[in-house]
Amino acid sequence: MQDLLTSALDPRSVAIIGASDNIHKIGGRPIHYMQRHGYQGAVYPINPARAEIQGHKSYATLADLPEVPDLALVVVGGDKTVAAVEECAARGVKSAVIIASGFGETGPAGRELQDHMVTMARAAGMRLYGPNTQGLANFGTGAIAGFSTMFIEVPPMDGPVGVVSQSGGMSSMIYGLVRGRGLGVRHVHATGNEADVTAAEMAWAVAHDPDVKLLLLYLESIANPEMLAATAAYARERDLPIVAVKAGRSASGQKAASSHTGALANEDRTVDAFFKHHGIWRVRDPHEQARAAHAYLKGWRPEGRRLVIISNSGASCVMGADAAEDLGLPLAQLSPATQADVASKLPGFATASNPIDVTAALLSNSGLFGDVLPAVAQDPAADLFFLNIPVAGAGYDVDRFARDAAAFEATTGKPVAVAAWQESVAAPFRAHGIATFPNEGEAIAVLAQVAGHTALMRQPRAAWPALPNVQVPAGAQGFLNEVDSLALLAHHGVPTVPMHLCRTADEARAAFDAIGAPAVVKACSAEVPHKSEHGLVALNVQTREQAAELFERFWSKMDAMGVQRDGVIVAATRKGQHEFMVGARIDPVFGPVVVVGDGGKYVEALKDCAVLLPPFSQDEVVRALRTLRIAPLLDGVRGDPPLDVQALANIAVAVGTVISCARGTIASLDLNPVMVGAAGGGAVVVDALVECAGAAGRP
């Protein structure tokens, strides 16, 4: 990856193919930017129609240059783009940025041209950025191989933020929003169509800049998940937060992303799971990225999520408590000693419990914030602090409020966020470096984000021991039948329901005698994975003759359907407190993926499930289950006992292990229902379906 750090982000020389003397044209703006922002390397404009461009000698062709440039910026269009890339490859250029559009994002013909350029570049050992990109910008070195107008509208300032985006427009927007908050931005890189270099690779390069303290990503696809995972792992090691926007959450958004950058959409819940698994915080849009940037750069790493609210308005205390509950931040339960200490500093009519209402007494005693904050800080339950000042003006010593808040934050390291919609109130807090917002919703949302992200980055990574390969039956194709599916799972530690596979009515009678009433009788055919849809399942079978009769009926029906008859199952009936499902599949982008959630016949309609990426722990499964709509059932409701969620978690881990260790021979597993009993009662898989890799469509 060193070529990314040197030839693209810190090049010794840059050639601009299609250079212009006009700084408002795409071919002129990069030269202007590099001159303006202190680039120290050689700049080589290439334009056969001019002898000089912006004070630099101009050359007719790349071959005329006195040296091979590290980086070439290609700003010509159409067929000239391909010819320019050919020339760069032949000359030995290390990196080329292709601005022009009209390639992979337009369809097969454009994709063919794009692939041709990549083939040429790789044969020559050259990296390509784009096409269809606004380019690269490193304000630490002054190497600006891009043309964004935003660098004129919002003057650059080097700083600790790095931006990597597939979209040029979004790279500029994120830059503008962050700079608008007074923060410096070092890297602004757009990867466009990602014909060669991906956003994940650029993120890796930026993450290795020791001066970058916050990495912001805008993605429309995740073309290189292994590299992004490696980047996230490195970022956790050096405590570098990564905050990502992944667009294309909806079907319409995914379609638009495809036409925008030629990206392939990733299923959104799996994207969420990938980000959580690797400690990347996902937000909805660039505004949320910029809103929290100051908080991250202050180094906030709270130990927990418990919030203290302090205001000079009782109504603001109430609204702050509402916002905290909406965002999952519990109010800190202050100890009696803390409350007594706070009360001693407030007038008798003020509220010393959390939320703390210092009342309008703040007008006559400007030191109340400075008195109350240290008193609360000693309480081990206090992780986060929110000051809400809805009204202040003449007579209020707002500057003292701000000084006291800043001194408290500096002394304790505790995060402090302020809500103040009056500019006269907000300005002093901002001047003292306090994270300040126009309302309680934004302020508390940032506290919740940083607390949640800190916990995510600190979460231990699960490690599974090495296991033997999972073997599917020799010659198996399509779906395994139910008996073989359950046998494979049982072999790897998954508890399954007792059953017998019968091929005669007498065997069905004998199986019933062994199983006992009530029993379940089901057809067994690898060609009929969904038996209930064909009337091939019978519950509550009470006699051996009923089992034999059902055998004859199902055997004949499978014959009439023209499907393979593997037998008829006689199984024990197992009931639980609740039916769950556990599934797994091989995602084309992310590899093994496990799904766990509400089960039964409505699973596809209700879709109340969570996604996990292996390896994961039992604790992670339990946390995922508690995000579901049915989460209240886990602890028992209306007299029902709590469920054995640990047993369900153990099954989910086992399923994840099976699909991971199958080495691509299993395409999917479907365990539904999984009967989960009361706490301590265990869980058992009643039905399962294993799909071998390369299976055809399901009947």
What is the element layout, followed by pairings?
Elements: H1 2-8, E1 13-17, H2 29-36, E2 42-46, E3 52-53, E4 56-57, E5 71-74, H3 79-91, E6 95-98, H4 108-123, E7 127-129, E8 135-138, E9 143-146, H5 150-153, E10 161-165, H6 168-180, E11 185-190, H7 199-207, E12 214-219, H8 225-237, E13 242-246, H9 251-261, H10 268-277, E14 281-283, H11 286-297, E15 307-311, H12 314-326, H13 336-343, E16 356-357, H14 361-364, H15 368-377, E17 384-388, H16 398-412, E18 416-419, H17 423-431, E19 435-437, H18 440-458, H19 482-491, E20 499-502, H20 505-515, E21 519-524, E22 537-541, H21 544-561, E23 567-572, E24 578-587, E25 591-598, H22 603-606, E26 609-612, H23 618-625, H24 631-634, H25 645-661, E27 666-676, E28 683-685, E29 688-692
Parallel strand pairs: 1-2, 1-5, 5-6, 6-7, 10-11, 10-12, 12-13, 13-14, 15-16, 15-17, 17-18, 18-19
Antiparallel strand pairs: 3-4, 8-9, 8-11, 20-23, 21-22, 21-23, 24-25, 24-27, 25-26, 27-28, 27-29
Helix pairs in contact: 3-4, 6-11, 7-8, 11-18, 12-18, 13-15, 15-16, 16-17, 20-21, 23-25
